[in-house]
């Protein structure tokens, strides 16, 4: 008999996503659903996933086992949020009002707003203040069903402050169940103090920041905002190549506001992901598919920037690129922790089906953070990271937009959210 210390029984739909990763094309629609399914975990790992009959025949419960009755509810893997700007201070609600009045992203930045406004607020905040806001955001993420995330620096833009943000992410990961995989984003923009010396700042990123980040093991990835007026294609290639030489895997913001060739660069470098892609070329997507580079779609940013052009999810899927949905949690253009809303927008505005959106929020993002062997699907041997939805069908995500459907969250085999309330006590893992 299989011994278990946690079981979830009688799910209306047990959405396992068992199978290959990442999912592309037709495979995106195969969620491997088990009606009336059950699962069991022991010491944080899944040990059984299957039908009720098989569960009764094969699983034996420990005396103090946790039993979750999922009758009339959906059980599925915890969300993996593959693009967040988690560590920052302050807010920029005035900028939304400016955009609503007709100002563009570039006009707001040129007037002293945008990324640099958050850089100033973040530099001014103390360590404990920043740590507190990071942990509170992580709580909200957990309540929304996010059990793992990627988190970027990028609001420090000095050697001292970029290292500080990454060290705070490591501290936060050690005090919270949510898994954090860290990304160095020193190339978020050229800070004001280097306004007349772009090359000087790029040299600082390459010669000092990257070696320091890699030397302390503070990040797994290196990112660049590859965009007109920020870092051009040649500059982005230099920075990402230097990061790769130091052991930091490339990923990049690509083709968000204009067609810059970011998708092609992501393919050339075999990046972990290319993110945004509203203006990606057909050739860029073709190359990404050939190189196996996933596309991270960020509907929250398109919504809050009031963009006319959203990333075309159908175009991504038909090109053979693996789609990923993420929040883009950041203070200026997508201040939200709601993965449920990202799934709804992915379906209603980007053309994904409910099945494609779920794969894009679970197993595919697990690939982009390098943890597809342990998270992203419900299969024996993987971590017991799962959510229980207060809904009878997974298609409720686009059907109930703006409503958090998550009632229970299990992380590493322990209930951390119950009845929509945080209940965790033990710290989680360090940042990877």
β-strand percent reads 15-25%
- State mean pLDDT (0 to 100 scale): 96
Structural class: alpha/beta
User: What's the name of the CATH homologous superfamily of the largest domain?
Assistant: Metal-dependent hydrolases
- The helix tally amounts to 16
Main sheet summary: 8 strands, parallel
What is the β-strand count?
A: 19
Into how many domains do the coordinates divide?
2
Radius of gyration: 21 Å
Give, in spatial order, the strands making up the sheet with the most strands.
Answer: 8-9-10-11-12-13-14-15
Characterise the protein shown here.
With 432 residues, the protein is an alpha/beta fold. It has 2 domains: 2-77 and 377-422, Urease, subunit C, domain 1; 79-368, Alpha-Beta Barrel (TIM Barrel), CATH 3.20.20. It contains 16 helices and 19 strands. Helix 9 (262-269) links the parallel strand 12 (249-254) and strand 13 (274-276). The longest helix has 19 residues, at 198-216. The chain is globular. The mean pLDDT is 96.
């Amino acid at each position: 008999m299989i011994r278990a210390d946690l079981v979830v029984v009688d799910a209306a739909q047990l959405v396992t996503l068992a199978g290959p990763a990442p999912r592309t094309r037709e495979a995106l629609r195969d969620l491997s659903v088990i009606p009336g399914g059950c699962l069991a975990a022991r010491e944080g790992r899944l040990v059984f996933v299957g039908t009720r009959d098989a569960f009764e025949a094969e699983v034996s419960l420990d005396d103090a086992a946790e039993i979750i009755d999922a009758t009339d509810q959906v059980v599925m893997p915890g969300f993996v949020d593959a693009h967040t700007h988690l560590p920052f201070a302050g807010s920029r609600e005035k900028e939304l009002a400016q955009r609503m009045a007709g100002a563009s992203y570039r006009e707001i930045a040129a007037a002293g707003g945008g990324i640099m406004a958050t850089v100033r607020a973040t530099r001014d905040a103390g360590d404990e203040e920043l740590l507190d806001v990071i942990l509170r955001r992580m709580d909200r993420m957990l309540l929304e069903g996010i059990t793992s995330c990627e988190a970027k620096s990028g609001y420090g833009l000095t050697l001292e402050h970029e290292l500080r943000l990454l060290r705070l992410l490591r501290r936060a990961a050690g005090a919270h169940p949510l898994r954090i995989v860290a990304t160095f984003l020193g190339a978020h923009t050229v800070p004001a103090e280097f306004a007349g010396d772009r090359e000087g700042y790029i040299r600082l990123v390459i010669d000092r920041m990257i070696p320091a980040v890699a030397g302390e093991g503070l990040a797994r990835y290196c990112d660049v905002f590859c965009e007109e007026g920020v870092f051009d294609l040649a500059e982005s290639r230099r920075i990402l190549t230097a990061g790769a030489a130091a052991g930091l895997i490339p990923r990049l913001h690509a083709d968000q506001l204009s067609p810059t060739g970011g998708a092609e660069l992501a393919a050339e470098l075999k990046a972990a992901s290319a993110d945004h892609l509203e203006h990606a070329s057909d050739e860029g997507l073709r190359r990404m598919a050939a190189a196996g580079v996933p596309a991270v779609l960020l509907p929250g940013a398109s919504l809050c920037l009031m963009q006319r052009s959203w990333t075309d999810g159908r175009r991504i899927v038909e090109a053979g690129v693996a789609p990923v949905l993420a929040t883009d949690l950041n203070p200026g253009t997508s201040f939200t922790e709601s993965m449920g809303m990202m799934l709804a927008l992915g379906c209603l505005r980007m053309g994904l089906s409910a099945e494609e959106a779920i794969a894009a929020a679970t197993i595919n993002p697990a690939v982009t953070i390098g943890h597809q062997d342990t998270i992203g699907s419900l299969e024996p041997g993987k971590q017991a990271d799962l959510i229980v939805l207060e809904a009878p069908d997974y298609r409720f995500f686009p059907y109930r937009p703006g409503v958090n459907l998550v009632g229970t969250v299990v992380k590493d085999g322990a209930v951390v959210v119950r009845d929509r309330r945080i209940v965790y006590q033990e710290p989680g893992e360090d940042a990877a």
